[in-house]
Specification:
With 122 residues, this protein is an alpha+beta fold. The chain contains 3 helices and 6 strands, in the order βββαβαββα. It has a 4-stranded antiparallel sheet with strand order 3-4-6-5. A two-stranded antiparallel ribbon has the order 1-2. The radius of gyration is 14 Å and the shape is globular.
């Protein structure tokens, strides 16, 4: 994985990680959780490992838009079945008859350390 650390003044709003599909340049941010960091900041995996960031509800970006919720669940269940409580891809409302998404999804893990495993796999 390509991890870049830049000074805060030069950081973009996302870290470079891989998405569930294996695509580069995905990021994870929290929508809720009990963290010692700003919930709008990307997850820094070293903080999760040190129990400094305890967020479990994440936004994963840059997944292929052709993934349906079923395909996304099948992909994630290969290594993470039972470790999350929800997967919520954001549907593309421009084409409601298709099962496409907008390129990102939310996932709620049951424990912060499951975020580490997910990050390391993708």
């Amino acid at each position: 994985m390509n991890h870049q650390h830049t000074p805060k003044s030069h950081q973009k709003s996302s870290n470079h990680t891989k998405s569930a599909s294996g695509s580069q340049n995905a990021s994870s941010t929290s929508a809720r959780g009990h963290a010692r960091t700003n919930n709008d900041e990307p997850v820094r995996i070293e903080f999760v490992k040190q129990a400094k960031d305890l967020r479990t509800y994440l936004c994963v970006k840059n997944i292929p838009c052709c993934y349906s919720k079923k395909q996304l669940k099948e992909e994630i269940n290969r290594g993470h079945k039972g470790r999350y409580w929800t997967i919520e891809p954001i549907p593309d409302k421009k084409e409601p008859e298709k099962t496409t998404n907008k390129g990102y999804f939310f996932i709620g893990f049951k424990h912060p350390l499951f975020v580490v495993d997910f990050y390391e796999q993708y």
